[in-house]
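Researcher: Structure prediction, please.
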Amino acid sequence: MSYDETAHVFWMSSQFDLTNFGKILGLTVLIPTEKGGLWIYSYATESDFNDYLPAFRQIIASVGLSSELVYKSRWIDNIPILGGIDWGDVGKAGINGAIQGALIFGLAGGIGAIFANSRRSKKK
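Model: Predicted structure follows.
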C-alpha cells in the first residue's frame, strides 16, 4: 500500500488466480472522505491489465467529491509517529500479539491447574 500525499489517495495492488481465467491483477484505491472512504476496485486478467491501466487511472482521477465529503486534514495527520506507521505491520503485530497472549495465558492456566491438582492431592 502506498499513499499519494498530493492526491490524498491510498493505492493498493493485488493479484489472485481465478479458475478458468488465470491470474487476475487488481488496482484498488481508497479516497478518504469526511464520512469514511470511497473505494474503487479495478481488475483485469494479467494479459490485459496493462492495456486497461490507463483507463483505470483515468477513472480514478475523474472522481470529484462534494466539498462536504472532501477529507479535511486534522492535527493528528501531521504527527510523524502516526504518519510513519505501516498499518499493515500493525495488523500483523496485533495478530501475533493475540496468539502469543493466548499461548502465555494457556500455559499459565495449565501450570495453575497442575499446582491446584497437586495441592488437592496433598490434602487427601
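Model: The chain has three helices and four strands.
Researcher: Thanks, that helps.
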